[in-house]
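Hi P.,

Sorry for the delay on this. The queue was packed all week, but I finally got your sequence through. Input first:
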Amino acid sequence: MTALAGTPDRPVRVSAVLDAPLSRWLWLVKWILIIPHYVVLFFLWIAFTVVSVIAFFSILFTERYPRPLFDFNLGVLRWTWRVGYYSYGALGTDRYPPFSLGEEPDYPARLDIDCPERLSRGLVLVKWWLLAIPHYIVIGFFLGGRQLGWWDGGLIAVLAVIAAVTLAFTEKYPKDLFDLVLGLNRWVLRVAAYAALMTDTYPPFRLDMGGAEPDEPEVLS
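Then the structure:
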């Protein structure tokens, strides 16, 4: 897969390929297999929060998000998305996620965010809490309780498990269900990037379903 080209109205791009064939039963033990990732992500998300605070003051005084800090937080979001895609955020691949903050172009779950040249000093004061409140309410239903970068008990996890049960009996992951799960994850990741001050583009209240971004060709497994 190649990186998706960004546009001013779509700086956050989420893509994924549904692997085939998928194991019919591996999903039952993935929560054990990704415990090492949970441990690492716990500390990465602490660092993510600290970096976001530093970036807040940098934007406030210079209108810039320092590129090394941006790349680190992007790496944490990418790592989180890969773990979520492997586990109960999608169950869309059996390929074990790499322990990496990098781009990992060969992994079936991708996240790209354009680093902005300048960010609004005014928006940085309100977007992460006030302006994002409507989205927080919506994605709260998607995620349920979220801990250490994985999805627990919300609509996304429920749909992923339904897909896994279907896979166990039919050996197929329902394509329509995959498209919906990806759309929900895409919404969550757009909001995460906005709340983390990585873009001034307000996330759309829109469910862009499917493994590819709108207007991008679908990549088949």
